[in-house]
Write a sequence for this structure.
């Protein structure tokens, strides 16, 4: 039977399709067309990503240089199993968030559908690019619609939070561009394939690459440059926060994995510093969860500890560790989307996400609390969810370090993962106790067409979270449980992604032809 292989010349379609959709919706404003494209584009991208994954069974790397120029001038689009996996995961999470935006009516806000599609354009471009300067360009394409999405959705806090988001990302983008300039100045190219092993061979290029990685670390939310994230993300709506959680930080983490794997094949000279920061990130995010007064702020802190767990795979840097880090990344995207969309359904129904305003939901909305409980299980690494295998994979990779002689790093990683699990349990237990138990809700703040939320008023008898709003979060949670049950089918894809990351010669040959 003939193997299915995608033509590499089709790779730019992952960018062109959402970009054309955004352009069309900016001109033609029809509610039906907006919602149709908002849902159809992620479906099409997800189908394309599945085709890419199938293609990589026989072709480890697919590359296409737009315009047919020489390698140093062309715009390279490159895909390997890790890229295809990220395209699929981000498409699924974008679809879930888009369905939620349609159900809550946020998609009717001016320009929200084209802005989401433009954000998708930037994400796909950043995942597929094989060039550091183009990575900067695609990240900016991601950020521009994000500024607008913060401004048009969420509470009034968004206006102050928007300034924080813009300021942090403008400064970080400037740092990223400076780093890319340093790389070009020291290595004479910003093409990743041509930078293969450049960080290991030249201290000056290694320093320039460190500036690029620092900028990406800020965008990802690595301690000590993390505090903006749990303040900024909860300021927007739950649907947009689910989008940002799945796309912004994860693209930065993907880029860090790719750059380190290609340019530092002999190890990073600053690996010890990064290891310390990663361990601190795991612990800070986990224990800060207990201090949150809003449910989505607690989720923001869980995003921080998740970033630490994912980067632990990069710090340990073995095939097992990279595979575990990628598995944790996929699990975290799925779980955070499930939790944020479920919490968003509660906020949309009762008008608040503050712990002091929510109580007694275990009696009023038992199925909502089942989804929420399983999502919290997943964050803590408990069965029957994907979180268990994510943490088991990282512990296995850490134990491998101990066996191979990296005793301090291995034991530090094991202790950090275990202690952070306890810290997360304490914080999430406080969240559960605040929302599930206590007296019945008597008041709420219903939707108001003029100000978003009306003043507090008596809660009508029989008010519960509608099933249709619970659907997107429940579907993502079901995906997490499916990953737990079908881990035997999931792991080969993670292993293939890790193998692709480490197979730098294949990456270079596909891009340069050499």
């Amino acid at each position: 039977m003939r193997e299915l292989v995608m033509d590499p010349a089709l790779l730019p379609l992952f960018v062109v399709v959402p970009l054309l959709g955004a352009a069309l919706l900016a001109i033609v404003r029809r509610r039906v067309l907006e919602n149709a494209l908002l849902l159809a584009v992620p479906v099409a991208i997800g189908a394309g990503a599945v085709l890419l994954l199938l293609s990589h069974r026989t072709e480890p790397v697919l590359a296409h240089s737009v315009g047919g120029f020489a390698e140093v001038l062309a715009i390279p689009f490159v895909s390997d199993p890790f890229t295809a996996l990220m395209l699929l995961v981000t498409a699924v999470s974008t679809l879930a968030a888009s369905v939620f935006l349609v159900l809550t009516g946020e998609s009717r806000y001016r320009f929200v559908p084209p802005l989401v599609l433009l954000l998708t354009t930037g994400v796909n471009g950043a995942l597929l690019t094989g060039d550091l300067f183009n990575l900067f360009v695609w990240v900016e394409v991601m950020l521009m619609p994000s500024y607008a999405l913060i401004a048009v959705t969420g509470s009034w806090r968004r206006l102050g939070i928007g300034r924080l988001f813009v300021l942090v990302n403008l400064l970080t983008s400037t740092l990223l561009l400076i780093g890319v300039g340093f790389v070009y100045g020291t290595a004479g190219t910003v093409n990743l394939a041509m930078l293969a092993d450049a960080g290991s061979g030249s201290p000056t290029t290694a320093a320039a690459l460190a500036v690029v990685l620092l900028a990406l670390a800020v965008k990802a939310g690595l301690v000590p440059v993390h505090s903006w994230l749990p303040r900024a993300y909860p300021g927007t709506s739950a649907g947009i926060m689910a989008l940002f959680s799945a796309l912004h930080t994860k693209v930065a983490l993907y880029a860090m994995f790719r750059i380190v794997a290609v340019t530092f094949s002999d190890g990073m000279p600053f690996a010890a510093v990064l290891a310390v920061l990663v361990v601190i990130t795991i612990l800070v995010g986990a224990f800060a969860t207990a201090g949150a007064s809003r449910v989505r702020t607690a989720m923001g802190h869980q995003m921080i500890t998740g970033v630490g767990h994912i980067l632990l795979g990069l710090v340990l840097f073995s095939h097992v560790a990279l595979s575990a880090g990628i598995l944790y990344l996929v699990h975290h995207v799925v779980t955070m989307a499930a939790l944020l969309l479920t919490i968003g359904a509660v906020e949309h129904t009762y008008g608040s996400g503050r712990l002091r305003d929510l109580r007694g939901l275990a009696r009023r909305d038992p199925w909502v609390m089942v989804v929420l409980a399983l999502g919290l299980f997943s964050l803590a690494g408990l069965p029957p969810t994907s979180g268990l295998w994510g943490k088991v994979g990282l512990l296995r990779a850490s134990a491998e370090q101990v066996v191979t002689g990296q005793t301090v790093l291995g034991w530090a990683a094991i202790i950090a993962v275990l202690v952070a699990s306890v810290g997360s349990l304490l914080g999430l237990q406080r969240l559960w106790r605040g929302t599930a138990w206590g007296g019945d809700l008597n008041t709420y703040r219903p939707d108001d067409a003029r100000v978003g939320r009306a003043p507090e008023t008596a809660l009508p008898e029989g008010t519960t979270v509608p099933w249709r709003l619970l659907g997107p979060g429940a579907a993502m949670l079901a995906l997490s449980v499916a990953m737990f049950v079908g881990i035997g089918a999931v792991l080969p894809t993670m292993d293939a992604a890790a193998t692709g990351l480490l197979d730098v010669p294949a990456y270079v040959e596909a891009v340069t032809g050499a």
Notes: The chain has a mean pLDDT of 90. The CA atoms of residues 65 and 73 lie 9 Å apart. The first strand starts at residue 62 and ends at 66.
